[in-house]
Predict the 3D structure of the following.
Amino acid sequence: MEGCQVRVLLIGVDSLYLSYYGEIDPHVDFEISGKKLQAQNRDPKERALAQWEVQGHIFEVSDRGQRGVGHGGFAYVLEDKAFRIALSSSGSRALPLGYVKISSEYLAHVGPVAAVDELNAIMVTLGNADATPTVSRVDLYVDFQSDIEMEGWPRAAWVTRSGSINTYSVRGEFSGYTVGQGGPISCRLYNKSLEILKSHKTYFVELWKRSGMDPNRRVWRLEFQAVREVLHQLGIQSFKGLMRELGGIWAYATQTWLRLAVPQTGDSNRARWPTHPLWARLAGIQWSTADTSLARTFSPARIPSLDRLFRLYLALLTSFIASNRVKDKPSLWEFAEGQAEFIKQAQQFHELRCKEYLSIGLEDYVAQEVALKARQYNTLRNVRSVKRDAETSDKVDRDATDYYRASRGE
């Protein structure tokens, strides 16, 4: 154990939640209230228009707001792959202007400073946002490989102020520990190699390779989550303060709040137990997020992977071919013949469905569904047709006006 090998591959900020104080611009409030109503509309053509474009982001505007903490809720939610922005209406006084989650993928690609710079540029277009956001939550992590066996440490080895220690497994394979789950500060030590098989966050592999990852060993992650209560106790409120004190947060988490020790027979005072060599190595990391981001362009669009789409298509196609077996043919049609027949029958089905039940042409229906997907995936700014129904448009505008006035208490 004295000579345990530990290779640190990556350190960083995995999740970041920020609050912006200020007040929404009245014109923005009015416009987004209309977008929210469009998101609630039963007409798919109207729902497809529930988007908000700003600073190169095409946000999906949700049909719902977001609950706050004890003070009502945020009226609007804008979301893409980079940010989830909950916004207050101009009638709100208790909540901040915005509460924002920056996605872990965006943080991995550009780093926290660049991500917050981009977010600041967005928030100032929405209202008179404070230029210095406050931190509501941060998750810090270290990814590493080691020759130490992670499973089997007794609960007593975890010297902590928390009373909650849990172990987990996936399909019989040990996957990790959690300490203090649900509290103001918590820890996870888990098999990241196993986790990305489910989350598909394979972009981390590129970062690990830069640090000499051994492809034959699992990658583990030690991660701490700290919310505003703990951050304020440590004297951290602003994002700038957070970036100055990342090392202080890590030191508090790994030395004061939690420690992995080596149990000593005959000594019941766990405070005297020596620190495990693995923990000593991880706790002693010099914290810096420099040169840990991916050097490639990040798209905020939430596009499903081609891998997933192609797998779904093949699953549908093979199910169709298998269900159309006939005795005078081979057990399965040839692949090309099956594809052609699948497309032919699918088109016939949808043409009939559009005519008999939806009262819309197939081409118009496809365009409508593509527009809805474009809104969901943040890929394309949908625009209303020149032939838009003026009566419907006027109703949306009137409803938006009524909503805006009601939100202001008028």
Observations:
- Confidence is low (pLDDT under 50) at residues 386-393.
- The chain is about 40% helix and 20% strand.
- The first helix runs from residue 26 to 40.
- The radius of gyration is 26 Å.
